[in-house]
Amino acid sequence: MEYLTKSEIAEIHDTSLKILDEVGMKWDNEEALKIFDNHGADVDFHEKIVKIPPDMVEKSIETTPSECTLYSRNKEYDIPMEDGEINFGPFGYANFVRDPETGKRREATAEDLRKLTKLVDTIDDWNFQYLQVTPQDVDPKINYLIAHAIQLKNSEKHLVAAGTSKRIVEDTVQIAKAISEDFDERPFLSFDHLTVPPLTEEKSTSAGLVEAAKRGLPVLVSEGVMAGSTSPVTLAGALAQSSAGALGALTLVQLINPGTPTLYGSFARIMDMKRGTVSMGGPEWILLKKAWSDLAEFYDLPNWYGCMLNDAKIVDAQAGYEKALSCLLASFSKKGLMVQCATIDQDRMCDFGNILVNKEISEAVLRIKRGFEVNENTLALNVIKDVGPGGSFMSTQHTLDNYKNIAWEPELSERGSYEDWEKKGEKTLYDKALTESLDRIESHQSPEIPEEKERKINEIIKEAKEDGEKL
């Protein structure tokens, strides 16, 4: 399913190259500036502006693997980034949660993150973890490091970590190595990196990008433009600028360590000019994501972006249609990592029940994406002849043999009679999702961490806290 034409893709690509070559990017990082300079880019060290020539960008795209595997501690959860493979998982960085007991908004805690990590661990088809919330009850200098430790201790799935500084990359790797001696052979970490729009790289986060690239760890690059605020309001212009920012970061990674797995991503969205807020559930968000997957296919790069984000403040009908539309279009990417949020309220608040609502939607969408076969068995002419006019197909061997492979069975959605629904307490889909989420958290056993490994992790966190550096 293509949204942009080939000529439109070529125009956007050409514009992105011109942005990087003629406008450039600001890199507030001396090491990054020197790397670009050593490879022949036009670097203004005083203004910290790097103008990247088109051939350097295109060579970097060529050295970026078109396919890769994101490893997990448990091999069952390895993620193949290859054609035809779409992988769903969580996202967020929310500062607030909707309390599952009171229904009121409050600040997110480390315990919330532990529970959310356990919940995602119960979803077999979601093969990676992401920071659903940023704990607000811990030392803010090291909250990301504490969050990474929580997730690494409570899940054997791949972790997409926050690459906010050189130190956070180093210490998160040390925690991962303390947990598993196999990390060097099977690194189960990647780091996400967000260019600050318009076209700016901050000192700390770019240092994290450099460190991850030196280690050859997978990185997820993107520029989260807001059309009308930090990029042109026109969607083509927003897309071209967002792609330029992502390609600029990708180029640095490949200059440092050619062949490093790099996922090409976007969080392009649009401003709501009437309210002064950003829209993360409207049709423009969805259009930008589908167009982005067309660009990723043009570059033959692994793709990643957020879907199922909401402007809605609770999990209601608005949240439902926003999720379904964005998830459906996202699924038609050729290959990629689809980070679907447990968040509502424009990515600010996490909701425990929301995660299983997202799971249900993503499963339905993947069933749509799978389509159906047309062959002698599925056309079933002989079965139609045997049953004949006025007959029933329910008891035929053909139905028994094929039903489970054809029909998707929801876990939460209501398909019974109205009377049955009344007898079960007239529960909404969200009611059932929240109850099931809390039950899963209560019953799920996280992987055991030996005492000596726990002690080593605590030492790494303690040293980081004592150094006083913001991670």
TrEMBL record:
Record key words, sorted: Methyltransferase, Transferase
Family annotation (InterPro entries): MttB-like_sf (IPR038601), MTTB_MeTrfase (IPR010426)
GO molecular function: methyltransferase activity
A biological process from GO: methylation
Pfam families named in the record: MTTB (PF06253)
Homology family: Belongs to the trimethylamine methyltransferase family.
Protein name: Trimethylamine methyltransferase
